[in-house]
Design goal:
Blueprint: E1 12-17, H1 22-25, E2 30-35, H2 41-45, H3 50-58, E3 68-71, E4 79-84, H4 91-105, E5 112-117, H5 122-139, E6 157-163, H6 170-187, H7 195-209, E7 212-216, H8 218-223, H9 227-233, E8 242-248, E9 259-269, H10 278-281, H11 289-304, E10 310-319, E11 331-333, E12 339-341, H12 348-361, E13 367-372, H13 376-382, E14 387-391, H14 397-407, E15 411-413, E16 431-432, H15 441-450, E17 459-463, H16 485-493, H17 497-500
Parallel strand pairs: 1-6, 2-4, 2-5, 5-6, 9-10, 9-13, 12-16, 13-17, 14-15
Antiparallel strand pairs: 3-4, 7-8, 8-10, 11-12, 14-17
Helix pairs in contact: 4-5, 5-6, 6-11, 9-12, 11-16, 14-16
Length: 502
């Protein structure tokens, strides 16, 4: 079987400390230059050919990004792509500016991309170096391609120039590795990354990363009573569907999980018996992005060597149509004993996640996060620029929003709870899968999922409405965004949810 893992996780990044000089610029093919909104005279004096750049910048269109594109009169004819970023710009705006600058620098053949940040206070300058590296590493990923003549790499390596001191880029590199892996998996065609191939790729990844790997196939899931997941899986023409568990244990191998990551892995979603129309089905090989983000977050955690025990649970199946596919009004029983009246077979994500959440929460992690491309209702509510966030700890809402502002992957919290279950009352089962009316479906879906989480387990559900955004989002240049990896690391390191969450 061909490898389904990327050959190169992230680009090489080198650092040059000291004043920005002409000889430094001779080492790069493109220079990404970030400047304040109003650079003073000392800034221009510190940049080789600063007078020329100042004159060009004065003629630029206000608000344009890049503001200037020119070439230096050196041997390499270095392409300079310059832009102005406000010192107090928020994380999302910084990431967006960096993405646009990197795109400008990638218009010519691939080479060494230099990054220089000039004219800022030290802390602000270092943040912008970090942001620019994140954008370059995201742009450096070559997504899976099956062309006879694949396109060449866009960037070969990255070099930071003019640093006052060496930067610790471990977190940025780890987040990039996780985000790149999430986007890589999501981009595969569904005949290349079917359920069997996905499980095999995860097994190979586990070997590379030192994770424990376990696959729960249909027979084991039947024994576990996972009727909700199996209802979705029964439309497949084989027994490839599975719930996969990966374990990261930096300490004792038998340690209880501090954190559980749960991902929706619907590798292709036809809508089932309630078949989707063509336009709605076209990109449904990406309906497994929640699982890919969960894996990417796990890889980033391991890459950083965080001293926490993590379980990663992935619900992997297709949602097919056919004579064996589940139907509206079927009644099935989930692993926690709750019976479910199915209403719409295209609400399969919450069915697959229900049993997966039951299994994950049985291990009583200190925090559980699930990721899912779950509802169109969430996209309608907040667009594809943010993702919806839900929790059984409503006091967390301000902190969850703050995490998004801090890292640039923005979220908007929605309520869930027993009051919304009024719309999911069933005459024949404990709960309806969804409401036929469809109003507020993202809130009803979150409230439904909460019924499969043990009450004492702190839980966050992310409805990935920002999983795809045309033209890219933040620092990520591709339509597939891998949203959630950066957010998760920020939850753990910037807000310390494991220490102060509960």
């Amino acid at each position: 079987m061909e490898s389904l893992l990327p050959a190169r996780a992230v680009l090489d990044v080198s650092q040059s400390v000291g004043r920005l000089t002409s000889s430094m610029l001779e080492t790069v093919d493109q220079l990404l230059l970030i400047l304040p909104k109003r650079p003073d005279a000392s800034v221009w004096r510190s940049i080789p050919h600063g007078g020329k750049l100042k004159a060009l910048l004065a003629k630029s269109v206000p608000g344009s990004m890049p503001a200037v594109e020119t070439r230096l009169p050196n041997k390499r004819q270095t392409l300079v792509v310059a832009g102005r970023v406000a010192t107090n710009a928020d994380a999302f705006d910084q990431l967006t500016a960096a993405r646009k600058l990197v795109a400008g620098a990638m218009k010519q053949k691939a080479g060494t991309l230099g990054i220089a940040v000039v004219g800022y206070p030290e802390d602000a300058g270092e943040r912008l170096y970090d942001v620019a590296v994140a954008a370059a590493l995201a742009a450096g990923l070559k997504l899976p391609s099956f062309k006879a003549k694949p396109s060449p790499a866009k960037i070969k390596r990255v070099r930071l120039l003019g640093l006052a001191r060496r930067l610790d880029l471990r977190r940025t590199m780890a987040e990039a590795k996780g985000n790149n892996l999430a986007r890589w998996f999501t981009a595969f065609p569904p005949n290349k990354l079917d359920a069997t191939a996905y499980a095999e790729a995860l097994k190979a990844l586990s070997t590379d990363c030192g994770f424990q790997f376990k696959r729960y196939g249909p027979q084991q899931l039947t024994e576990l009573g996972a009727g909700a997941f199996l209802a979705v899986a029964q439309g497949n023409d084989d027994d490839s569907a599975a719930i996969v568990r990966l374990r990261y244990r930096p300490g004792t191998k038998s340690a209880a999980p501090d954190l559980a990551l749960v991902g929706k892995g619907i590798i292709f979603d036809t809508g089932g018996t309630n078949l989707k129309p063509f336009a709605s089905m076209l990109e449904m090989h990406g309906d497994m992005q929640g699982s890919a983000v969960a894996v990417g977050a796990l890889v980033a955690i391991a890459e950083l060597g965080l001293p926490i025990s993590v379980d990663c649970w992935l619900a992997i199946t297709e949602n097919r149509t056919g004579p064996r596919a589940y139907k509206s009004q079927d009644v099935v029983t989930a692993a926690n004993g709750k019976s479910i009246q199915t209403i719409h077979t295209d609400a399969e994500g919450r069915m697959a996640l229900a049993d997966t959440l039951v299994l994950a929460s049985r291990e009583t992690p200190r925090l559980m996060i699930d990721y899912a491309t779950l509802t169109g209702s969430c996209i309608n509510a907040i667009t594809r620029r943010l993702s919806g966030i839900f929790t059984n700890r409503p006091d967390w809402h301000p902190r969850l929003k703050r995490v998004g502002r801090t890292c640039g992957e923005r979220v908007w919290p929605f309520p869930i709870g027993k009051e919304f279950l009024e719309e999911l009352k069933s005459d024949v089962a404990d709960i309806k899968q969804c409401s036929a009316a469809g109003t507020g479906d993202h809130i009803l879906a979150g409230s439904f999922l909460a019924e499969f989480v043990a009450d004492d387990v702190p839980w966050v559900h992310i409805d990935l409405s920002a999983s795809n955004h045309k033209g890219g989002l933040g620092h990520v240049p591709t339509e597939i965004t891998g949203f959630g990896v950066r957010y998760t690391i920020s939850m753990l390191l910037d807000e310390d949810f494991l220490e102060r969450g509960s």
